[in-house]
Amino acid sequence: MLKTTLLLLSALTALAADNTWDKVKDLKTGTELRIYKKGKPPLIATMGDCTDDRLIVVVKNEEVGIDKQDIDRIDYRPLKTNRVTTKTTTTDTTQTTGVGPSPQGSRPGPTSSTTTSYNVGSKPDFEMLYRRPPPPQKPPQDKQDK
Predict the structure, then answer these.
(1) How many CA within 13 A on the CB side of residue 7?
(2) What is the pLDDT along the chain (146 residues), one digit of tens a residue?
(3) Domain total in the chain
(4) Residue 143 domain-assigned?
(5) 26, 42 contact by CB (below 8 A)
(6) Is the pTM of this model over 0.85?
(7) Contact 64, 58 (CB under 8 A)
(8) Distance CA 34, CA 43 (A)
(9) What is the DSSP string of 13-28?
(10) Residue 67 is part of a domain; what is its CATH number?
């Protein structure tokens, strides 16, 4: 009974691991990724293609393939098109008179200057998409099963 339960649990764990990799395969081309590899700093890349055992990404205009077994974790930045944009316009109007010295080429009368600035909202944060499942544990040796 114990062996059957452990076998069932390990099969479910393997199935769950495949399901999370399916999420990676379902990502759209061009999605921004942060990839954590064994013993390396995180890599920022753009999604290219994905197979059952390999991830193909674009890093600095160069296509790179990464084996699934080398990946510890993958985060992705959700695609959001409705980033808030703020437009600010400031207009300053001043009246100059003909009294006193004036800069060459200037005339008395109203002058104005307009400044316009745009602020674009920030990108959404990265969200975890895939984490390598832990290695399967060996079942405990039970003296009764021998």
Answers:
(1) 4
(2) 555 544 445 544 444 445 789 999 999 999 999 999 988 999 999 999 999 999 999 999 999 999 999 999 999 998 776 666 676 777 777 766 656 565 666 666 677 788 888 777 778 899 999 999 888 887 777 665 55
(3) 1
(4) no
(5) no
(6) no
(7) yes
(8) 5
(9) HHHHHHHHHHHHHTSP
(10) 2.30.30.100
